[in-house]
Design goal:
- The complex is a heterodimer.
- Chain A is about 85% helix and about 0% strand.
- Chain A is mainly α.
- Chain A has one domain (about 40-255).
- Chain B starts with a helix and ends with a helix.
- Chain B is built from two helices and eight strands; from the N terminus they run αββββββββα.
- Chain B has helices at about 5-30, 140-155; strands at about 40-45, 55-60, 65-75, 80-85, 100-105, 110-115, 130, 135.
- Chain B has an eight-stranded mixed beta sheet with strand order 7-1-4-3-2-6-5-8, with no helix packed on it.
- The chains are: A mainly alpha, B alpha/beta.
- Chain A: It is a multi-pass membrane protein.
- Chain A: It is found in: Cell inner membrane.
Chain lengths: ~260, ~160
C-alpha cells in the first residue's frame, strides 16, 4: 500500500522534474544574444531537413484527406439535396481542425522522431559533450536552430495541407461528382471567415508547432544515452506529441469556437 | 547538400506556404465584406429574434449588404435590439424602410431581410446610428402551432 503511494509520488516528482528540465532547456537555448551570421545557415539547414523534406507527405496526405472529405460529404449531403454545402464543409473542417491537427501528427511522426533520434545519438556518441569541450554551447548550436526550424515550418506545412486538401475536395466534388463549380466556391466564401477560421487555424498550428518541436527536442536531449534509451525516447516523442496535440486541440477548439 | 541549393529549397518552401495562405484567403474566404471597406451602423428592435445570430447576413432582395454585429436586450421592457453593420456602398435607405427576420429554405439559417422604403420629399435617409422602426419578428413555429390549435378550439 505505502509502496504504491511512494511510486505515485516518485512518478509525479519525475514528471515535474522533466517539465522543469524541458523548460530550462528551452529557455537556455532561446534566450541570449542573437547571432544572425552564425545561426542563419544552421536554420536554413534545419528548415530544409524538417520542413522541405516533410513537404511530400504533407501534400499527398492533404490531397487524399480532402478527396475523402469530398466523397464522404457528398454521399451524405446529397440525401438532403444540400450538396452545395460541400465547399464549406470541406473548407471548414480542413481549416479549423484537420489541417493543423493532422499536420501536427504527421510532423511528429516524420520530423519529430528524426529530431529526437538525431539528438539522442549525438548525446550517446558524446558529440554534445565534445561541443562543450570546444566551448560551443550545444543548446545554442544544436537545439535552437532545430526549434526555430520546426516552429516556422509547421504552420507553413499546415497552410499547404489545407490548401491542397480544399483542392482535393474540389477535384472529387466538382470534377468527379458534379457539384456546381460556382456554388462550390461561392458558398464556401460565404461561410469561411478570415479571422474566425483561417486565423484561428493558423494560431492552432503555431501552438502545435511549439509543442511538438519542444517535446521532440526535450526527449532527445534528455534521453538515456544507450541504443535502448534512444529507441524509447523516439517512441515517446511520437506518443507524447500526438497526445499533447489532440488534447490541446480540444482545449483550443473550446476556447476559439465554443 | 550544397548550401545554395538548401537555401533555394527553403525559399521555395516559404513561397509555397505564402501561396497557400493567399489561396485560402482569396479563394476560400470572403474578402469582399466585413474585413475591409467603410461601413455604417443601423439598429432595429424586434419582439422576437428567433434563431438570429451575430454575423448573420443582412440582405436586400437576396443580396448581402451587411451583417448583424451585436444582439442585446434594450430598454425598460427588455426588447431585443439588433445592431447591423451595413456596407457604405449602400447608404441610401430611406426612413420608411422595413426589416424582417426571414429563414433561407425550410431548415436554413435565419437572416435579416431589409426592404427599402419609398422615397419622396418628406422622408429622410437613414444615417449611422439610426433606428429602423418598421420591424417584423421571426416566425416561431411553436407560436404558430399554438395559435392554430387555439383557433381550432374556438370553432
Amino acid at each position: 500500500m505505502l509502496d504504491n503511494v511512494a511510486s505515485l509520488g516518485r512518478n509525479v516528482l519525475a514528471s515535474v522534474a522533466g517539465a522543469g528540465q524541458a523548460m530550462m532547456m528551452l529557455l537556455r537555448a532561446l534566450i541570449g544574444k542573437p547571432q544572425l551570421r552564425k545561426s542563419w545557415p544552421l536554420l536554413m539547414q534545419q528548415m530544409y531537413s524538417v520542413g522541405v523534406l516533410s513537404l511530400v507527405i504533407i501534400v499527398v496526405s492533404g490531397l487524399f484527406i480532402g478527396m475523402v472529405l469530398g466523397l464522404q460529404g457528398y454521399t451524405i449531403l446529397v440525401d438532403f439535396g444540400a450538396e452545395q454545402s460541400l465547399g464549406p464543409m470541406v473548407a471548414l473542417s480542413l481549416l479549423r481542425e484537420l489541417g493543423p491537427v493532422v499536420t501536427a501528427l504527421l510532423f511528429a511522426g516524420r520530423a519529430g522522431s528524426a529530431l529526437t533520434a538525431e539528438i539522442g545519438l549525438m548525446k550517446a556518441t558524446e558529440q554534445l559533450s565534445s561541443l562543450e569541450m570546444m566551448a560551443v554551447d550545444p543548446l545554442r548550436r544544436v537545439i535552437a536552430p532545430r526549434f526555430w526550424a520546426g516552429f516556422y515550418s509547421m504552420p507553413l506545412l499546415a497552410l499547404i495541407f489545407s490548401a491542397v486538401g480544399i483542392y482535393g475536395g474540389y477535384l472529387v466534388g466538382v470534377r468527379w461528382l458534379g457539384v456546381d463549380d460556382g456554388a462550390f466556391w461561392s458558398v464556401m466564401q460565404a461561410n469561411v471567415e478570415w479571422g474566425q477560421d483561417i486565423l484561428n487555424g493558423f494560431i492552432k498550428s503555431l501552438v502545435f508547432a511549439f509543442v511538438v518541436t519542444w517535446i521532440a527536442l526535450h526527449k532527445g536531449y534528455h534521453c538515456v544515452p544507450t541504443s535502448v534509451g534512444i529507441s524509447r525516447a523516439t517512441t515517446s516523442t511520437v506518443v507524447t506529441a500526438s497526445l499533447a496535440v489532440l488534447g490541446l486541440d480540444f482545449v483550443l477548439t473550446a476556447l476559439m469556437f465554443g | 547538400m550544397d548550401s545554395r541549393n538548401t537555401q533555394l529549397a527553403v525559399g521555395f518552401f516559404v513561397i509555397f506556404g505564402i501561396l497557400a495562405l493567399l489561396f485560402l484567403g482569396l479563394r476560400a474566404a470572403n474578402t469582399n465584406f466585413a474585413s475591409n471597406g467603410a461601413t455604417y451602423t443601423l439598429y432595429a428592435k424586434f419582439d422576437n429574434i428567433g434563431g438570429l445570430k451575430e454575423r448573420s447576413p443582412v440582405k436586400v432582395g437576396g443580396v448581402v449588404v451587411g451583417r448583424v454585429t451585436r444582439i442585446s436586450l434594450d430598454g425598460d421592457y427588455y426588447e431585443p435590439l439588433v445592431e447591423m453593420t451595413i456596407s457604405q456602398e449602400y447608404d441610401e435607405f430611406s426612413d420608411t424602410s422595413s426589416v424582417s427576420i426571414l429563414t433561407s429554405g425550410l431548415l436554413g439559417e435565419q437572416y435579416i431581410g431589409l426592404s427599402p422604403g419609398f422615397i419622396d420629399d418628406t422622408v429622410e435617409m437613414l444615417e449611422n446610428g439610426d433606428y429602423i422602426h418598421d420591424t417584423k419578428s421571426a416566425l416561431v413555429l411553436e407560436d404558430l402551432i399554438g395559435q392554430f390549435l387555439f383557433s381550432q378550439g374556438n370553432d
